[in-house]
Specification:
heterodimer; A: about 110 residues; B: about 230 residues; alpha/beta; Spore Coat Polysaccharide Biosynthesis Protein SpsA, Chain A; 9 helices; 7 strands
Chain lengths: ~110, ~230
């Protein structure tokens, strides 16, 4: 039962990664990879244990937490990019207002 | 585009990005205006009398309603200049570090090499009052630029530059803060336009040192550039 619940929780990450693709392919690929690894671990916990011992992590549960940390880091990076994009929009608006004021003033001056 | 009528006042615009520079801006603008240059000061949301003093000194003042950063201010100045019909653009620091007498040298270099970008170099020219840590930081920036853009420059973060109209059109600064200095080099490298360096003199004063960037800020610059690389 818990496997179905965890899978249902991971699936939205695929949709999110699809949306992120337009902004950053690197982050989207990271999210896809993290989500696939997450689902594999949910359905084959033994594989998580095997991989964890191969990587020197110890337990499969610890490896899952590391994957979760990686996903969280990628989501933070994505948020940073979104904030940057919004800042770009603000910059364009401020710039347009500033230039229009000066050009409008000089046009009015020429007309007078 | 050639420089046939470069000396005509309408052709060249000196763009100065300024933030809270009321102490020095009038003198910097006057030095340029007295030599016959047209000057646009982009007041980047200053809280002091930068705009008023620049205007009194005969600069055109373009005022950002909020502080965005030096990169954003320079892009605003370039866009204003392009829309107003200027054909050549000099970017010039507001803190008095640059020497207006270097502008004709940049011009001569542009003509001589038929270049679109002329980048000032303090390491080909000279410096007054530069500290050793600053020198080391700038040398590290040169190495970083060589590794990331392939440009072989002697000075990667010099604010004194001359751009042709084609160069100014090719540049689209998206790094609002100090990372724009690296971004502009990145865009020069990808534009395929001709660039050359020119010896200039940078004069560090107590004022410019106090206003300048701290070494730690280079970490912010690296982070901004990293985020930029993640896009697309």
């Amino acid at each position: 039962m818990i496997s179905y619940v965890l899978t249902a929780l991971i699936l939205p990450i695929f949709l999110y990664a699809f949306r992120v693709w337009r902004v950053s392919r690197i982050i989207a690929v990271g999210l896809y990879a993290g989500a696939v690894i997450g689902i594999v671990f949910v359905w084959t916990p033994a594989l998580a244990n095997t991989l964890a011992s191969m990587m020197g992590v110890g337990r499969g549960a610890d490896l899952v937490i590391y994957v979760y940390c990686l996903l969280s880091f990628l989501l933070i990076l994505d948020l940073s990019l979104k904030i940057k994009a919004q800042h770009q929009t603000i910059t364009r608006i401020v710039r347009e207002i500033a230039i229009s004021r000066v050009l409008g003033r000089s046009e009015r001056g020429e007309q007078a | 585009m050639t420089l046939q009528s470069f000396d005509e006042a309408r052709d060249l615009l000196v763009v100065i990005a300024a933030y809270n520079e009321q102490a020095v801006i009038a003198g910097v603008v006057a030095d340029l205006v007295n030599r016959g240059y047209e000057v646009a000061v982009v007041d980047d949301g200053s809280h002091d009398e930068t705009s008023e003093r620049a205007e009194k000194a005969d600069a055109t003042v373009i005022k950002h309603s909020i502080n965005l950063g030096q990169g954003a201010a320079l892009q605003t100045g370039l866009e204003y200049g392009l829309r107003s019909g200027y054909r050549f653009f000099v970017t010039f620091d507001a803190d008095g570090q640059h020497d207006p007498d270097d502008i004709p040298r940049l011009r001569n270099r542009m003509i001589e090499m038929n270049a679109d970008f002329v980048l000032g170099s303090r390491f080909l020219g000279g410096t007054v009052g530069m500290t050793k840590p600053r020198r080391l930081l700038l040398k590290a920036a040169v190495l970083f630029t060589r590794l990331t853009t392939g440009l072989r420059l002697t000075d990667a973060h010099n604010g004194l530059r001359l751009l042709s109209k084609r160069a100014a059109t090719a540049i689209d600064l998206r790094q609002n803060r100090m990372a724009h200095a690296s971004e502009i080099l990145d865009q020069i490298a990808t534009s395929g336009l001709v660039y050359v360096e020119c010896p200039v003199t940078i004069r560090y004063t107590d004022y410019s040192k106090a206003k300048g960037q701290s070494g730690l800020n280079s970490l912010n610059i690296l982070l901004d550039l990293f985020l930029q690389r993640l896009r697309k």
